[in-house]
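The passage that follows is intended for readers who have already worked through the single-chain material. We present the inputs for a multi-component assembly, then the predicted structure in tokenized form, and finally a short commentary. You are encouraged to pause after the input and sketch how you expect the pieces to fit together before reading on.
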Amino acid sequence: MALSKRKKAMYMRYAMYVVSIAFLVAVILFIDWERLGNAMFRWNIVKEQFPDILTKAAKNTVVFTILGFAGGLSFGLLFALMRLSSIRAYRWFAATYIEIFRGIPLLVTLLILGFGIPIATGWKWPNPYLQGAIPLSLVASAYMAETIRAGIEAVPKGQMEAARSLGMSYTRAMTTIIIPQALRIIVPPLTNEFVLLIKDTSLISVLGVTAATKDLARFGRDGVNQTANATPLIVAGLVYLAMTLPLTQLVAWMERKTKAMSR
Amino acid sequence: MSSDVVVSLQDLHKSFGSNHVLRGIDLEVTRGEVVCIIGPSGSGKSTLLRCVNMLETPSSGTITVLGRELTDIDCDIDEARSKIGMVFQSFNLFPHMTALENVSVSQRKVLKRNAKEAEETSRSLLARVGLQDKENSYPAQLSGGQQQRVAIARALAMNPDVMLFDEATSALDPELVGDVLSVMQALAQEGMTMLVVTHEMGFAKNVADRVVFMDAGVIVERGSPQQVIGAPKEERTQSFLSSVLNH
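Having made your guess, compare it with the prediction:
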């Protein structure tokens, strides 16, 4: 037992490497690659997915995401300002809204607003895109409101005081001094929000789709049904990654940059 | 009330919850006058100064600046504030703007000057505080003393009738205090009306026309610097000054 702490840590590290490599080798050796490839990655099926998976399905996913994000950002900003308002009724309303829409799963909200409301009132959604995008943006706005509020509150109080002392109105001070500074703080978390939205659009297809409004996930599922093979889902997953990975890398880069700036 | 009264405070009270910070302040500042407010921390001097431009709303009493009663609910506070310059202990420069933009922004957004005119004014103001070569620097690239001088130029950009200084040198490294004080002194000599909360007894002694000593929310003693700092009558003033000066 003459091993020092550091020596022990060193041997431990070697052991970890050995175990990891052994595990990898085992996976490579014991998996039936041919069977896996046949079930999940058949080149001829991969090729069949194109170009529709990009020109139709991915396009719909992007449309839902952008509509949801634009709506979520506008309402989110509104609710954030209401949360910070000096008027108690506004604060109360925004807080209740945020708690409700963050507390209910998106799937349930989609079903209530997409199906429940039309059944209850006889009113019909005028457009299948809005039917999916509006519930999505209502939920997104609840999350974004909290992000934006935190960003505004992170701007020191003295900034507002200095702006008001120069004769700026509250609104003017907000738009020229506070919100530009808050934006720098919230762009990384908002980008993460965007990535979450890309993935959340996959739930919209529970509301039913036409050939024209199919999103990526639904396109993949329908592909599985047609081909009796999992390849379409794998391709859909890869297309999701092609959209989300650049964005998460962008967030990581922005965070590194802010860290370097605040040093 | 004579027309050259710039700031007039009458029976001003301010409470934060149960904490009674200002307990009946009466004070007048006339045009061109430099009034220094001294006193121990917690005496209410910063709160008093922050009331003058309504950053704090007084609990009772009236504040009149340039004949406008700020405590009147019909008073346009934004308009009134644009004529009252404020310099903060922590500078509060806008970190996302260069020195030039910091000085220009209120001219553009409040006075609605065009970009060229605002920039020219800002350049001459930066030159006035000795920072003509720093117009493109961001606050983070400036020393504390330089930041505070930009903040003074920013306040001057509105052509204020009175300048308020809230412990403008307290956050500075000792060797940077002098630059800021000499800018303030130059302003005083040019005839700017100034209300200065400060711990710099030398500045109060040499620059102030009048010194006000505050303690526990009231004005204990007021008069010329020779009187208040040189030969204080009140015991509280004496003990404060001896603790400040004798170390």
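Commentary: The mean pLDDT of chain B is 94. The interface with chain A takes residues 53, 55, 78-79, 81-86, 88, 90, 92-96, 105-106, 109-110, 151, 154-155, 158 of chain B (CB under 8 Å). How closely did your sketch match?
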